[in-house]
Structures are given as structure tokens and as C-alpha cells.
Amino acid sequence: MAIINATDKDFAENIKEGVVLVDFWAPWCGPCKMIAPVLEELSSEIEGKASIVKIDVDDNQETASKYGVMSIPTLLLFKDGEIVDKVVGFQPKEALSSLITKHS
Predict the structure, then answer these.
(1) What is the reported pTM?
(2) Whose CA is closest to 53, among 17, 9, 22, 74?
(3) Which of 8, 16, 64, 93 could be joined to 69 by an S-S link, Cβ 3.0–4.6 Å?
(4) How far out from the chain centre does Cα 43 lie?
(5) In which element (H, E) is residue 57 found?
(6) Predicted confidence (pLDDT) per residue in 24-38, tens digit
(7) Among 8, 10, 26, 29, which one carries the catalytic annotation?
């Protein structure tokens, strides 16, 4: 399953159903670049269980502000539109996978 790139306009639509891992990132962020291939790999492994959404904090400050994102990467896990978990900074694939499994 492809990773969805969300904007302020369609963010609520992208997180309203099911389990969704959201990556708040920016193109200039080193750890964000490190986690990108991890998320790509994870997206194929969690297909059917959860989806992954990325949102660029530089272009979508309204959403980042709404969820109190102060440092990136920040990963929020939503279940049916509600935040159920949060991790900040680079995470190995195993940690993200178990985070998703815990809530799916």
C-alpha cells in the first residue's frame, strides 16, 4: 500500500477510519530522511491492518500546531480519528510495527 501524503485540507479525512500512523516530517530533517525507508518497508507489511500518512510540517503548519508537534519526526498513531499513541524521533521498524499491532 502506498504511503499517503496529506495536507491541512485532507488530513481529517485521512485519519478518520481505522488505524493510521502519521509521520510529521520536513524535507530538511535528517532523522526524517532516515525514517522514510523504514516507513516504506513497514507500509507493505501492515497492509490491511493500518495505513501510513506523511504530512510536511513546513507546508501544513495548521495540522502540526493542532496536534502540538514541536519536534520532528513525530509519529502519531490514530484509531478512528483519535490519537492512541505518540513517539518522537527515529524509531526502528520493529518498534513501529509493535506500536501498530498494539492498537489494531
Answers:
(1) 0.96
(2) 22
(3) 64
(4) 11
(5) none
(6) 999 999 999 999 999
(7) 29
